[in-house]
Amino acid sequence: RAKADPGRHPCFYEPSMDEKVRTRRKLSADLRQAVKAGQLTICYQVQRVIATGEIRGYEALVRWQHPTRGTIMPDDFIPLAEESDLILQIGEWVLRSVCAEAVRWHQPYTVAVNLSGMQFVHSNIARIVANVLEETGLPPQRLELELTESTIIADQARALQVLHQIKDMGVSLALDDFGTGYSSLDTLRRFPFDRIKIDRSFFGAAQTSDHTQAVVRAVLALGKAFDIPVMAEGIETSDQLSMLNAAGCDEAQGFLLGRPAALADIVKNGQITMNHAL
Ligand code: C2E
Ligand code: MG
Ligand code: MG
Ligand code: MG
Q: Where is the EAL domain (predicted)?
């Protein structure tokens, strides 16, 4: 790794840069411990059918309860984990934990788990999914895997084969963060996705409602063309929800419908009851 020469490139390497590199290394070392030390936790965010408001499922979102820094969000450590094989450990831990928890829910909601591209390239993800389903006893129909296009872009032929193996088990596949990255029609045509999730950035404050509406209509048309439902992510206002409803969008997820929460809190709210006789 090239070492900075502050004398030669004063504008590129400020002291804060070194600081950042150090912090990153420390965090990376901490993360290796975190998995063993049981510092990773899972939050669940509700996904609802727009027309009826009924719960369709929950997306599992990992958190890192760092002993001194408090809760660290996935965007701040998943990319770090993806630099090494740590992501494989974390990914498998999340999948196993989520399936083991969800099988005990009295309500048979779907659970969606995010997959990293590394899990496709560097592990036998179809085998892992099959093993986890068998070990935990979760019916495959209750599991959905969320992938982005960048996840499958590296080795499309292999991804296609693996995704078909997973689908053959009865597990469903969601195309996450749609509209960012590649967003090619070819992905939808070639890969067996069961739903499209419109990226939350389209519902951010910087978007005009005209623009958001145009994007929503375009993705809904795609959903129709491929005969799969469309879910909108990052829904924060009732105006957004009414617009989606009027446009005929199927499902939504966002702070308005429910924030990511610990399972214990969801149980306290009565949305989920646990089966203890297992
Ligand atoms: P994602 O899969 O697109 O997950 C949705 C993200 O949007 C979550 O962020 C969620 O908290 C956030 N969100 C939900 N509703 C709203 C809203 O109304 N407004 C706003 N502004 N945000 C909302 P989170 O939990 O920070 O996760 C970020 C990303 O980290 C996820 O994006 C996913 O790509 C990744 N991630 C999370 N858990 C895992 C995991 O177990 N494995 C892998 N590989 N990636 C994960
Ligand atoms: Mg997701
Ligand atoms: Mg997303
Ligand atoms: Mg994402």
A: 24-274
Which residue, judged by its Cα, is nearest atom 22 of ligand 1? 234
Res 278 pLDDT > 60: no
Q: What residue type is 171 in one-letter code?
A: V
- 190 in contact with ligand 1, CB cutoff 6 A: no
- Cβ of 45 closer than 6 Å to ligand 1, yes or no, is yes
Q: Is the pLDDT of residue 275 over 70?
A: yes
DSSP 169-215: TT-EEEEEEETBS---HHHHHHS--SEEEE-GGGGSTTS-HHHHHHH
Give the residue, out of 202, 233, 253, with the most ligand 1 atoms within 8 A of its beta carbon, to mutate for a pocket test.
233
Give per-residue pLDDT as tens, 202-237: 998 777 888 899 999 999 999 999 999 999 999 999
Phi, psi of 59 (to 5 degrees): -95, 130
Task: Kindly state if the Cβ of 118 falls inside 6 Å of ligand 1.
Answer: no
**Among all chains, which residue has been given the structure tokens 């939050």?**
43
- Both tokens of residue 210? 């005209």
Round the average pLDDT of the chain to a whole number and report it: 92
Cα separation, 65 vs 198, whole angstroms: 29
Question: Are 106 and 53 within 8 A, CB to CB?
Answer: no
Closest C-alpha to ligand 1, atom 45? 114
pLDDT at residue 2, rounded to an integer: 46
| pLDDT tens digits for range 108-119 | 999 999 999 999
Ligand nearest 88 Cα, by number?
1
Q: Angle CA(148)–CA(216)–CA(218) in degrees, nearest 5?
A: 85
